[in-house]
Design a protein that fits this description.
- With 361 residues, this protein is of the alpha+beta class.
- The chain contains 9 helices and 21 strands.
- The strands form 4 sheets. Strands 6-7-8-3-9-10 form a 6-stranded mixed beta sheet, sandwiched between helices.
- A hairpin with a 3-residue loop joins strand 16 and strand 17.
- Helix 2 packs parallel to helix 4.
Length: 361
Amino acid sequence: MSSVDLIGVTKVFGHVPALEDVSLQIASGEMLALLGPSGCGKTTLLRLVAGLELPTAGRIRIGGDDVTAVPTRERPIGMVFQSYALFPNLTVRQNIAFPLEVRRRPAAEVKARVDELLDLVRLASQADRYPNQISGGQAQRCALARALAPSPAVLLLDEPLSALDALVRTRLRDEIRRIQQVVKTTAIYVTHDQSEAMAIADRVAVMSHGRIEQVSRPPELYESPATRFSAMFVGGRNALELPVVDGRVALDGVFTVPSPAGASERVVAFFRPEDVEIAPNGVGRPAVVEVKIFLGAVTRLHLLTEVAGRQARFYADLPSRQAMAYEPGAKVTVRIDPANVRIFSLDDDGAPAPGAGGAHA
């Protein structure tokens, strides 16, 4: 196991900055997820750690050693790609053995290590099959075993599950986490899927426009986003633009919370759909059910209310059994625990945050 440190890392392609002054410390044995939308710089960061790209500025250390200019082949890393990148003319066993044979390890050592990894990734019964004879999930497990074969200090995973269907993705996500904890390797996992990041990582680094917005453990990130972007990107929150009056932000009948220090006259209030309650005693704010979407255990209600003479829309996620009582057109009253509301200032241009509820009030 080795720690990974990025110190003031910047990467510019031509005149376009992909990463800007990124500093990040990943502890030995930790699984860190890089989470963000397409184009935020997360894959570029991973490629810099792998040595597939060189930074424009800054330094990269693995296990305390400066590897900024060290070629990929000399870095103690293993990498799993989205596309699997298996050799089609080699069997599962031969694919896993390949990085060991390139390093001219003794045959007995190679066989023992491959057998160990086949058991670890649960592919022993597919060992003599070719990549076109196994499923996508099995192919990705083979790619993972191949990356682990030389016992790398750091495992890099670039959206390894995005090509798989939902059920296989969930199962393999859990398998990757199990395997990483068994081998105790340091790992960096790139994804744009927040549920994947939350489930698999010890910490999550949220990225936007080449910068790190927040690094936190999953529960802390979910409950207490530190920036407006984190609040928007994680948790599928509603967003309402509201005025600041006497140092407070209020959606009458729903919540009243203090305004952040230094906030402008208008702010954005974020709250998660699961925190919107249908008030059983009618105490709250009137709203109308506009759309009802069944999602399995949860049903999402699209709610419409009026704020300062203008329509505002937001979502409420209810247990599906409870939601059976509400059909489109139903009149309800809603409320939200103020502790579940996060307030952030508007951007300099005054634009409301994009996302779930994005309404003006």
